[in-house]
Predict the structure.
Amino acid sequence: MTRNKKGISPLIATILIIGFTIVLAALVMQWGTQLLKTQTEQTAMTSKAQIACSTEVDFNVDSAKLGTLDSVTGVQNIDVRVTNNRDRTLTGFRVRISSGESVFTKTITTSIPGFGSALLSGLSFNAAAPATPIDVTPNKVEVIPEITIDGNKVACPDQRIEKTVEAPPTP
């Protein structure tokens, strides 16, 4: 009994190897193209944001004052008035409230149109709550503006302004 052992011919083996190589090369090319496109878009967006932040954003923090303390709830507001000095709309703010070593960050969605002014609302903290990051009176605020570029909200950290918090008026 003889067995006839035959493999694939060298010609077919060569064609299969070339086919696999072409498919693998096509996959690598597709992946590389997508990677390059993504990196280019991200770099363009970052550059656009940095240029817009440095040339189109200019604002002042006119005042930062502690409001009165609600003795029932323990909530205390911080009133921060901001003026936009350019025609680009500021679409929001990131505000850091500091007191010594404690820092509490809040995102504010108040939008200020070009050459407008607004009081940033929503800046409050519970002075009586033990879980509050700030357990003593805040002494400064840092305001970082946000703008919208191509539908994406972008922070402008290089344009931040720090302001000392004024004590509440005494009755």
Summary: The CA atoms of residues 53 and 156 lie 6 Å apart.
